[in-house]
Structure formats: structure tokens, C-alpha cells
Specification:
This protein has no helices and seven strands. With 106 residues, it is mainly beta. A hairpin with a 2-residue loop joins strand 5 and strand 6.
Length: 106
């Protein structure tokens, strides 16, 4: 399946007196997995991410290859999920995300 995402960051990081925050991001990913016992869906994803960053009063825009893995559990219409993704792997920094989600399926 093909999945598109758009989001904003809620946190920032500082290292060697350099502050880095993701302002917003978007991506397009190919997501594949297998349904187990009609309730668990482990998956991997690969694709492209673009992020607008705030780095010490500069606002660079970075983009590149992304990959990750996760799983969704369906309990009737209720869904919970967890995911790890390497969004950007640049020479000076790595942008990794960890996501926990809950939802209601219609």
C-alpha cells in the first residue's frame, strides 16, 4: 500500500550548542506487511521524507530516503500501533521518529 503523511514536531534536541527542531515534515512511503490472526499487522516501510528544520535561526529544508518498521493491532474497531522510522540520515545528524498511535476504524 502507498501511504502519505504530513506532520509537525513537538520536541527539539541540542548537541554541541546547536539546537535542532523539526518544524514540519511530509513523506510518501510504500508500506508492506502481513495480517496475523486477523488482529496483528507487522509491517516495514520505505520511501521519501522532506522536513523543514529550525537550526540556530536557520531554516534548512532536507529530504531523502526513509525506512522503518512497526505493527498495528486491531481489537474490533479499536486500533493501537507502534512504529520506528529513520526519517533522514544526513552527514551531520540523523532524524529518527518513534510513534505510538491509537485510533478508531470506521
Amino acid at each position: 500500500m502507498i501511504e502519505g503523511r504530513v506532520g509537525r514536531s513537538t520536541g527539539s534536541d541540542e548537541q554541541d550548542d546547536v539546537s535542532l527542531k523539526v518544524d514540519d515534515y511530509m513523506g510518501l512511503y510504500l508500506k508492506g506487511g502481513a495480517e496475523i490472526a486477523d488482529m496483528l499487522f507487522p509491517y516495514v516501510l520505505v520511501g521519501f521524507s522532506k522536513a523543514d528544520l529550525i537550526m540556530d535561526n536557520e531554516t534548512p529544508e532536507e529530504g531523502g530516503f526513509s525506512y522503518g518498521f512497526g505493527a498495528d493491532m486491531h481489537l474490533g474497531n479499536f486500533q493501537v500501533g507502534a512504529e520506528w522510522m529513520m526519517m533522514l540520515d544526513e552527514a551531520d545528524y540523523e532524524l529518527k521518529t518513534t510513534t505510538v498511535s491509537i485510533g478508531w476504524r470506521f
